Amino acid sequence: MKTWQWCTVVAGLLLFTVIAFTYNTDMFQTIDARASQAIAGNGIITAFHYLGETIFVLVLAAVFIGICIVKKRNDYAVFTFATIIGGYIINQVVKRIFERPRPEIADQLTSFSFPSGHTMASLCWILTAVYVLNALYRQARVHTTVWIGATVLFMLVGMSRVAESRHFFSDVLAGWGLALAWFIFCVIVLQRWQQTKNKQSGHKKRHLV
Asked: In this structure, what are the phi and psi dihedrals at residue 186, rounded to the nearest 5 degrees?
C-alpha cells in the first residue's frame, strides 16, 4: 500500500467537500464567471464532450469488462465495473443531494449541475482504460507521457462542459476531485485483493509441496 494513494484519496475528497459547501460564495461565483468568459463557445474544447456521454461510456465499460473476462482476469473486470459504473452511480446520488441548478441559458438541460457527470465519467473511464490495459498487456508498458496525455484528455472533457455552459467550473473541479478519489480508492481495494489472492496461492503451493 502506497501512502501517496491514500493522500490522493483524501485530497480529492477534500477538494470536493470544500467546493460542495462554498460554491455559492462570492469567490467561487467569480471563478465560475471568469472560467466561463475565457472558454465559452470554444468549438475545439466543446467537441470533447462526446467522450463523456453516458452511452459512449457505458459501451466502453462493457468492452473493457469483456476484454478482462476473455483474459480470465475477473479482478480487473470487477475493478472496471466499480470505477466506471460505480462512479456514475455516485455522481447521480450526489447530484440529487445537492440539487444545484445549471447555468441559466436557453435550452438548458433539466438535470442537476453539481458535480459534472461528464467530468467524473471521463476521468474514471480514461484512467481505468490506461490502468487495465497496462496491466493486461505488460509488453507495452505505459510511460509517464501516456498518463499525462490521459490527464489532459479528461481535463478537456471537463472543460468542454464549461465551454458549452452546461456546467459551472466549480462543478467540474468538484467532479475531478470526487472521481479521482473514487478511482484511486478502487485501485487500493484492487491491489489489496490481489495481494490477498497471491498470499493464498502461495500458501496452497507450499501445502502441496
From this structure: -65, -35
Residues 87, 151: Cα–Cα separation, whole Å:
17
Nearest to 166 by CA among 54, 36, 73: 36
Q: What is the pTM of this model?
A: 0.91
Distance from the Cα of residue 135 to its chain's centroid: 19
The full set of domain ranges for the chain reads 3-103+111-195
Give SS3 for 166: coil
Residue 60 CA: distances (Å) to CA of 2, 27, 65, 191, 208: 29, 37, 8, 23, 41
Per-residue pLDDT of the chain (209 residues; tens, 9 = 90+): 689 999 999 999 999 999 999 999 999 999 999 999 999 999 999 999 999 999 999 999 999 999 999 999 999 999 999 999 999 999 999 999 999 999 999 889 899 999 999 999 999 999 999 999 888 877 556 678 888 999 999 999 999 999 999 999 999 999 999 999 999 999 999 999 999 888 776 655 555 44
